[in-house]
């Protein structure tokens, strides 16, 4: 393509129009009703979503939109995942290498989840006990018990959601790598398209499960949702930290070991296919950069 070829002018985004539409929607919804404005001024969990005393119109519309968005994200991730899995797998040699990388990544995650799972059980009990009302004379003791238990359950859900995204992110990475390499033999565009689709699946899973957890907490806990969201955020962040840091350590250990053996002892370049330790290096890239970042 010539550098001086005419290109169509790009339309500048009308940010002021988007802002005006957003302000108009918020103004049409009206102000949220203050807490306790209904007949029952006390808080109670598991309130009906359609009860105007528990959720105002603004809150109902906002939570409803969030639920729709998270469901669309999860469905879109499933559709894209099926599309990536149905792509061409390449030659038998390519499939053998991909299978070796997948087996190594699965073994690492299996060991990590086994170790972290014991710690999660201990931390869940600790989170519940730190909020538990030990004074039985407290008139709000029953409400605090519900909050304490819900915070521990939310911590577990956040950890499980983070582990789920990390596992499927790693699995999609090993699946997508093989198919992207096979598509690259046909051209640049098919390979880039499959690569973007594989990454989009992980992004949609992260967004969908995160929104789903937040919406469920709001629906169950109502105006006390902020108390429970602490546990959900802590669980997701803690497991992501374990997977990111642990995967990063494994990645660097495998990378340095493979490079030292190849360059110093055998005088072959980095990531050379003649070096069997390159498989361990690729496993580290998947568990650190894919599973760790996805969680």
Describe this structure in words.
This protein has 295 residues and is mostly helical. The protein has one domain (47-294). Helices cover 75% and strands 0% of the residues. The chain has seven helices and no strands. It has helices at residues 15-29, 57-85, 92-131, 141-184, 188-221, 225-265, 278-294. Helix 2 packs antiparallel against helix 5 (188-221) and helix 3 runs antiparallel to helix 6 (225-265). The longest helix has 44 residues, at 141-184. Mean pLDDT is 80; it is low at 1-5 and 32-41.
Q: Strands, helices and their partners?
A:
Blueprint: H1 15-29, H2 57-85, H3 92-131, H4 141-184, H5 188-221, H6 225-265, H7 278-294
Main attributes of the structure:
295 residues, 7 helices, flat, disordered N terminus, 75% helix, mainly alpha
User: How many DSSP-defined strands?
Assistant: 0
| Element-by-element helix/strand order | HHHHHHH
User: How much is the average pLDDT?
Assistant: 80
Low-confidence stretches: 1-5, 32-41
Condensed summary:
This protein has 295 residues and is an all-alpha fold. 75% of the residues lie in helices and 0% in strands.
């Amino acid at each position: 393509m010539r550098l001086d070829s005419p290109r169509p002018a790009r339309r500048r985004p009308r940010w002021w129009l988007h802002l005006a539409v957003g302000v108009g929607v918020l103004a049409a919804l009206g102000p949220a009703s203050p807490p306790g404005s209904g007949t029952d001024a006390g808080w109670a969990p598991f309130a009906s979503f359609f009860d105007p005393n528990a959720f105002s119109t603004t809150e109902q519309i906002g939570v409803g939109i969030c639920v729709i968005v998270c469901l669309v994200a999860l469905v879109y991730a499933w559709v894209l995942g099926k599309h990536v899995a149905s792509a061409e797998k390449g030659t038998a040699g390519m499939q053998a290498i991909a299978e070796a990388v997948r087996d190594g990544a699965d073994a690492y995650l299996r060991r990590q989840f086994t170790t972290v799972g014991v710690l999660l059980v201990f931390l869940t009990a600790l989170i519940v006990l730190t909020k538990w009302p030990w004074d039985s004379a407290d008139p709000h003791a029953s409400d605090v018990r519900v909050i304490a238990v819900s915070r521990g359950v939310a911590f577990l859900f956040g950890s499980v959601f983070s582990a789920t995204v990390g596992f499927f992110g790693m699995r999609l990475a090993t699946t997508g790598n093989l198919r992207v390499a096979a598509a690259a033999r046909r051209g640049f565009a098919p390979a880039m398209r499959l690569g973007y689709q594989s990454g989009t699946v992980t992004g949609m899973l992260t967004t969908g499960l995160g929104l789903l957890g937040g919406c469920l907490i709001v629906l169950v806990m109502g105006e006390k949702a902020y108390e429970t969201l602490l546990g959900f955020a802590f669980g997701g962040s803690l497991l992501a930290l374990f997977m990111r840091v642990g995967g990063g350590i494994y990645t660097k250990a495998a990378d340095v070991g493979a490079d030292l053996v190849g360059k110093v002892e055998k005088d072959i370049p980095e990531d050379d296919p003649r070096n069997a330790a390159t498989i361990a290096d690729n496993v580290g890239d998947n568990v650190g950069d894919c599973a760790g970042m996805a969680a």
